[in-house]
Amino acid sequence: MTKKGKIKTAIIILFSAAVLFAAFSVTGKTLMKLAYPMKYTEYVEKYSGEYGVESELVYAVIKTESSFNPNAVSDADAVGLMQMTPETFEWIKTKLGEEDKDLSLYDPETSVKYGTFFLGYLLDEFENTDTVLAAYHAGRGRVNGWLEDEKISSDGKTLNEIPIPETAHYVKKVNKALNVYNNLY
Question: How many CB atoms sit inside 10 A of residue 59's CB?
């Protein structure tokens, strides 16, 4: 093969590799966006702005809690996109001064509004995202008890460990999703 032929072959190989790389990159990103969608954007953006919560955190919680299924129901009877229990829902209604009996956590806007309010409330109370997520999953009272235990919290504000494996796993899953949302969008 001549020098000119070798150069032409090398250029074709490099061009083909570049095209394959670009196609894989686009496909990989597209697949990640399918796995980590941004649904209910109008509600997430509205209420994350209103309650001072990073929208990516709201998406990460929804992804982890219900995988964007507004009809999801957990074993603990938490329902909707953000998986809230009826008791927590009623408590938040009093915090917001709302008495509407027709509100439903199966309604995406209601779920996002109340779940995002609760995340904002927990962020104000605990400040640390891992502690907030533990409280969202295990309950504020339980987490406040953990913070009083010197074996679990050395400063009374941050959890050194999360004593319930299911809650620790939940916090890791939300953080993974949060990392993906922060890097993907």
Answer: 26
Number of neighbours of residue 153 by Cβ within 10 angstroms = 17
The tokens of 47 are what? 């209420």
Query: Domain range for residue 72?
Result: 37-184
For residues 101 and 119, the answer to whether their CB atoms sit within 8 Å is: no
Cβ neighbours for 37, distance < 8 A, ≥ 6 positions apart: 63, 68
Position 22 confidence tier, pLDDT thresholds 50, 70, 90: low
pLDDT in tens, 76-122: 999 999 999 999 999 999 999 998 888 899 999 999 999 999 999 99
Please name which of 90, 88, 75, 97 lies closest in space to residue 136, comparing C-alpha atoms. Answer: 88
Mean pLDDT over residues 135-141, rounded? Answer: 96
User: Is residue 156 within 8 Å of residue 147, measured between CB atoms?
Assistant: yes
Q: Which of 149, 150, 147, 113 is nearest to 132 (CA)?
A: 147
Mean of pLDDT over the chain: 92
Say how many domains are in the chain. 2
Q: How far apart are CA 98 and CA 78, in angstroms?
A: 20
Mark whether 41 and 132 lie in a shared domain. Answer: yes
**Which residues have a catalytic role annotated?**
65
| Whole-number CA gyration radius for the chain | 22
CB atoms within 10 A of CB 147: 19
Domain co-membership, 61 together with 81: yes
